[in-house]
Amino acid sequence: MKRRHLLLLAGASAVLAACDRAGAPGASGAKFHSIDITGAEYARDFKLTDQHGQERTLADFKGKLVAVFFGFTQCPDVCPTALAELAQVKQALGPDRDKLQGVFITVDPERDTPELLKAYMGNFDPGFVALRGTPEQTAAVAKEFKVFYAKVPGKTPGSYTMDHTAGVYVFDTQGRIRLFTRHGSGAQALTEDMKQLLQAA
């Protein structure tokens, strides 16, 4: 197995271990395809700047389901796949599509400028929000969400890529953390979970 995949799995395992420690999975009593982390004492908020220069927190999206994914724009496969699936989920919600807010948090603020993030979001859904912070802010929000990320040297001098936890955090319309969806679960399963959360709202 490639080193990148091993590290992605390690990041996801850290999140799952945190779920176990919190005693949160299944806490809501609902049946989800995703991992139920209702009541977890992490992934509670973020405070970062979006691609338009506006400071954003979770409270800005109250009344909507919020799907948060950590990644970087030069990611070759995992990130674009996850964002494309989120866009599919949004469309699959039909008349409720505007009740889903996609949020992308870059783990590579060094290269991911606001202009680049704005263009990148346009590839998936122009309504999605991309957030970036200083290296210190990025580290703090990743710690809050128990997200692993690390810079990995590339094949040419000065180049690099990023390894990171691959998964989507889902907040309900009241701003409460509810689910963690592992990468590869598919758009259909996440759509069904989103519909269930909307019905319970």
Automatic annotation (TrEMBL):
Source organism of the structure: Caldimonas mangrovi
Domain Thioredoxin per the UniProt entry, residue ranges: 37-201
Keyword Signal: yes
Family recorded in the similarity comment: Belongs to the SCO1/2 family.
Keyword terms: Copper, Signal
InterPro entries referenced in this protein's UniProt entry, alphabetically: SCO1/SenC, Thioredoxin-like_sf, Thioredoxin_domain
Top-rank lineage group of the source organism: Bacteria
Designated name of the protein: SCO family protein
Signal peptide: 1-17
Transit peptide listed as a keyword: no
